[in-house]
Amino acid sequence: MASRPGLLTEWPWHRLGNFKYLVIAPWVIQSFYLLATKEMKDVSIPYLLIFPSLLLRMLHNQIWISISRWQTARSPHRIVDKSIEFEQILFNGILFYVGFHLIPSTFQMSMWRTDGVILNILFHAGPVEFLYYWFHRALHHHFLYSRYHSHHHASIVTEPITSVTHPFAEHIVYSMLFAIPVLAAAYTGTISMIQLVGYVFCIDFMNNMGHCNFELVPKWLFSIFPPLKYLIYTPSFHSLHHTQFRTNYSLFMPFYDYLYNTMDKLTDEVYEISLKGKTETIDVVHLTHPTTLQSIYHLRLGIASLASKPYKSKWYDLMMLPVAWMSMVLTWFYSSSFIVERNKLKNIKMQTWVMPRYNFQYGLSWEKEIINNLIEKSILQAETNGVKVKELNRSGELYLQKYPKLKLRIVDGSSLAIAVILNNIPKGTKQILLKGNISKVARTVIQSLCNKGIKVVMTNKHDYYMLEPLMFGTAQGHLILSNNCMPQVWLVGDGMDDVEQGKAQNGTIFIPYSYFPPKKVRNDCLYYSTPAMKIPNELQNVHSCENWLPRRVMSAWRVAGIIHGLEGWDANECGENVLHVDRIWMAALRHGFLPLLHE
């Protein structure tokens, strides 16, 4: 939103949420009705293609967003080294439908007209670029900037989605400008389907390219044809506009900046530096993997509107299931982790690497060796790249045994997960019931609670007799085997079923100790989050939610890797090894990580 929102800043359908797409439903329904009830010779093909073209535009934009975020995370060719809805497409769709009804000649346009394409190019290079340049300069006047254009410039570090992040009033003007070549061709009878679709595609392509935040225009293009620098901009050209504000106003053709002396003097230098790239060392790598098939859409490379919210299965996920299944098939062939996110906190640079395997694949016996090889490959790659800490939530000791001379430190994050769980226990608690499979985290939590004099009740005989000998000193006598005791606080992990939850008292507090949250089957009980912490504001470039956790909240296992990097600790934490729980908890608080509040 602009700093001082002006008239027509908000989109008319903004308050409709996802229902805003129903605005074009009448025209879409009419298109299908015409297709079903009339012969093809009596139907306007261009009119029928409006809706598919809108879907293709959304796909085109999504591809640019995914590529840009992937490149930003992994590429040395970033232009700016800091943190970084398809409203416009919906609006354009309405304009296309209305325009077809207002201009009857468009109903039967030809497939291709050379004279129409030439006319389009001339009108864009002339009136459109010229008027846009001066309109853009006017938007940077303090009156219009504070009421409108500051919303777009909130993204100092751009990405493709920035290109369509404008107030509604600005989009009205832009649509009027881009309509000039189309209307000129329509009224001269030279308009064609390829010209119309091609022009819209070129606008989207150039817009996305200019905001992608990595340099991709090769230098040899300008060497072969030097005047090209006046006719086509580069991502670094427009990035300077977002950082300097008073230079590089042109739309796609820098000619007008040269003409009116508003070309930034650093343009060529930034372009050269961005092409060369720069070598950097990553300090911490978080290795993770998708959970369910639909979770790929919630990765930062996925759909922005989904990735920015906690993961929750929705009915419309079924419509995207075919693509999810295709992604699963691709994982059988892709044999390397890939980078999805790049973050920075203080002097620590971090990346998130994703293993191309889903959660259910970890339970397949014939996948075990393949997954171990993938993990081993990523560890060796991180070692080669000079990574200091690699956060890995399982089986790290296998690779330490195989490669005892590893310089990087493997951290599974158990110590901080334990600390978060212990600090989640309500004050004054005297008894706790344990339900779920026993893990390293569960075992250490039980020992800590018993040492504090809190009685831990277990119902599983096998687990009880396995843990009871581990209770020494003050912990003795505080681990209890009983099927009749139902405390108000439960520690829950994987393996607890719905029937067991049904036995809990009203108002029972469920505190998870596993990575995955329990299924919520009781409305009269309180479910805590899985071990996690709020991240400090200084942690940059966190644009997506970590699975089911809220925005700007990270799992304790992931935070632990960051703390190890910040503190420079020279110790591995994997296998049966657990580092000092109180020490890492205090370090996390000192670096600005905060516990979650549960209501």
TrEMBL record:
Recorded GO MF terms: aldehyde oxygenase (deformylating) activity; iron ion binding; oxidoreductase activity
Segments traversing the membrane: 19-36, 48-68, 88-105, 117-135, 172-201, 315-334
EC number: 4.1.99.5
Record's keyword terms, sorted: Endoplasmic reticulum, Lyase, Membrane, Transmembrane, Transmembrane helix
Alphabetized InterPro entries for the sequence: CER1-like_C, Fatty_acid_hydroxylase, Sterol_Desaturase_Related
Domain Fatty acid hydroxylase per the UniProt entry, residue ranges: 127-262
GO BP annotations, alphabetical order: lipid biosynthetic process
UniProt keyword annotation of Transmembrane helix present: yes
Reactions mediated catalytically: a long-chain fatty aldehyde + 2 NADPH + O2 + H(+) = a long-chain alkane + formate + 2 NADP(+) + H2O
Record's subcellular location: Endoplasmic reticulum membrane
Pfam families registered for this protein in UniProt: CER1-like_C (PF12076), FA_hydroxylase (PF04116)
Domain Very-long-chain aldehyde decarbonylase CER1-like C-terminal: 432-595
Family: Belongs to the sterol desaturase family.
Protein name: aldehyde oxygenase (deformylating)
